[in-house]
Amino acid sequence: MRKQIAAANWKMNLTVSEAEKLTDDLLNTGFSLHPNQQVVLGVPFPYLINVEQRVSNKPNVFVAAQNCSDKSNGAYTGEVSVTMLKSIQVTYVIIGHSERREYNHEDNALLAAKVDIALANGIKPIFCCGEPLQIRESEQQNGYVETQLKESLFHLDAQAIKGFVIAYEPIWAIGTGRTASSEQAQQMHAHIRKVLAGKYGEEIAATISILYGGSVKAANAVEIFGQPDVDGGLVGGASLIASEFAAIINSLKK
Ligand code: PGA
């Protein structure tokens, strides 16, 4: 059974004390996880250690960095390598969030390199894909997302992609309060799984967790996560409120 994941993306928010308090408050909500369910907290770099220390004895709760360098080390001022992340026990890294694609001009080829260096160092990527509004309006979203997957992931062999985590985040739904309908989410997730099955076979495709992101909140999580090909969510704004995110965690499919 593939993993169901509630992933938080705190983005560039919170001070260290706020990050610690949010973590403690969340752990104190007493959310419950089945063995195939995970909580992943996408924490700003400076607080990764603080949050990792707080969750390290909690089964199935992990931290994620929000980005990593595609280089292993060297004269790259301001960059953070996966080796550094590994040295502080970071489990996951979010790769290719649409905000980084847009503001930092990250393209599919660069993201392929980031995926490779993360996997080579034992850090699990959460690979983000998703189309902008004008692509959705012209009904080209399937092909657009397919290209993102092909150019950043399809060089991987079946062993590397087994159990991989992908987040589908339509850009028009991020931070806008306008979520995709559960039908739109299911349609795209099924398409992504079909594309993966075409390349790697049904059995491997069935092991890949596909999260939905874009204005997920407690009020819509049960319906979205209930779709057969939706394996949880990548949550921005609503993950900054402990009780709200706990309710989202409890909405994961059993
Ligand atoms: P949102 O962000 O939940 O605030 O829409 C999701 C994301 O960008 O990962």
Write the layout of secondary structure elements.
Elements: E1 4-9, H1 16-28, E2 37-42, H2 48-55, E3 61-65, H3 82-87, E4 92-95, H4 98-103, H5 108-120, E5 124-129, H6 133-137, H7 141-153, H8 158-161, E6 165-168, H9 182-200, H10 202-205, E7 209-213, H11 218-225, E8 232-235, H12 242-249
Parallel strand pairs: 1-2, 1-8, 2-3, 3-4, 4-5, 5-6, 6-7, 7-8
The chain binds 2-phosphoglycolic acid.
2-phosphoglycolic acid binds near residues 175, 214, 216, 234 and 237.
The biggest beta sheet reads:
8 strands, parallel, barrel
CATH class: Alpha Beta
Helical/strand content category: alpha/beta
Helix share, percent? 40-55%
Between the first and last Cα atoms, what is the distance in angstroms? 10 Å
Order of helices and strands: EHEHEHEHHEHHHEHHEHEH
**What fold name stands as the CATH topology?**
TIM Barrel
pLDDT under 50 segments (min length 5)? Answer: none
- Using the alpha-carbon principal axes, give the shape: globular
Mean pLDDT: 97
Q: What's the gyration radius in Å?
A: 17 Å
CATH architecture: Alpha-Beta Barrel
**CATH homologous superfamily classification:** Aldolase class I
Biggest sheet strand line-up: 1-2-3-4-5-6-7-8
How many helices?
Answer: 12
How many structural domains? 1
- DSSP strand tally: 8
Describe the structure using short key phrases:
single chain; 254 residues; alpha/beta; TIM Barrel; eight-stranded parallel β-barrel; 12 helices; 8 strands; 42% helix; 16% strand; globular; binds 2-phosphoglycolic acid
